[in-house]
Amino acid sequence: xxxxxxxxxxxxxxxxxxxxxxxxxxxxxxxxxxxxxxxxxxxxxxxxxxxxxxxxxxxxxxxxxxxxxxxxxxxxxxxxxxxxxxxxxxxxxxxxxxxxxxxxxxxxxxxxxxxxxxxxxxxxxxxxxxxxxxxxxxxxxxxxxxxxxxxxxxxxxxxxxxxxxxxxxxxxxxxxxxxxxxxxxxxxxxxxxxxxxxxxxxxxxxxxxxxxxxxxxxxxxxxxxxxxxxxxxxxxxxxxxxxxxxxxxxxxxxxxxxxxxxxxxxxxxxxx
Length: 272
Fold this sequence. Notes:
By secondary structure, this protein is of the alpha/beta class. It folds into two domains: about 35-115 and about 225-270, D-Maltodextrin-Binding Protein, domain 2, CATH 3.40.190.10; about 115-220, 3-Layer(aba) Sandwich (D-Maltodextrin-Binding Protein, domain 2). The chain contains twelve helices and 13 strands. The chain has helices at about 1-25, 40-50, 50-55, 70-75, 90-100, 125-130, 140-155, 190-195, 205, 215, 240-250, 255-265, and strands spanning about 35-40, 60-65, 85-90, 105-110, 115, 135-140, 160, 175, 180-185, 200, 220, 230-235, 270. The strands form three sheets. It has a six-stranded mixed beta sheet, with helices on both faces. A five-stranded mixed beta sheet has the order 9-6-10-5-11.
């Protein structure tokens, strides 16, 4: 009987230790550390700028770089990271709808104007006046593809069935007076194919590392009234955490504003 009691006690004690260990592990997340996923330029650059300021506020900022638009949202939804900084609201909303994710904006930071670039034509008018049939490469993800087509419509190259839709595809083009062909390509790849097409619509965070400046190299540039503001994105419920609020606050600081003016003097990045 005593032997049984000892064995029972040991088993119960072991189970309790395991339970306490598991609870401790589950609650062991370091609240003073925030992991933010970002594409390299300008997002990761801006985050690097405020690392010390976050530290002064009591937080360790860890930056995890991504080179695509899908993985950082998957990492955020699975809680591998605490926030990400690379996308605009229309893209985030489409991701939530298509994937059933629960992502929200914690604050808008800046706009990276989209532009039409070409290595073969020096201006939009020269492009339009060329008699040859031309090919334009555009992003293949739903939101940025619609954004690219809206840009081309503003440039007078096409007309869309719905002139205001953010989700148009080449199939939704009503008028194509310049008989343009469209190649739908992954956004990150667009700078590399620019030499192989007549023109390409390229997102700012991929154009900048490729040495392309919208105001210098763009045939046509997105207007300042663009709805495509880049935001700090978090999982729903975390948008009011102190760490996230401090992150947004610091990204809107004079330190960042002055850095943007110096680093991107030609309007490649516009703070909101």
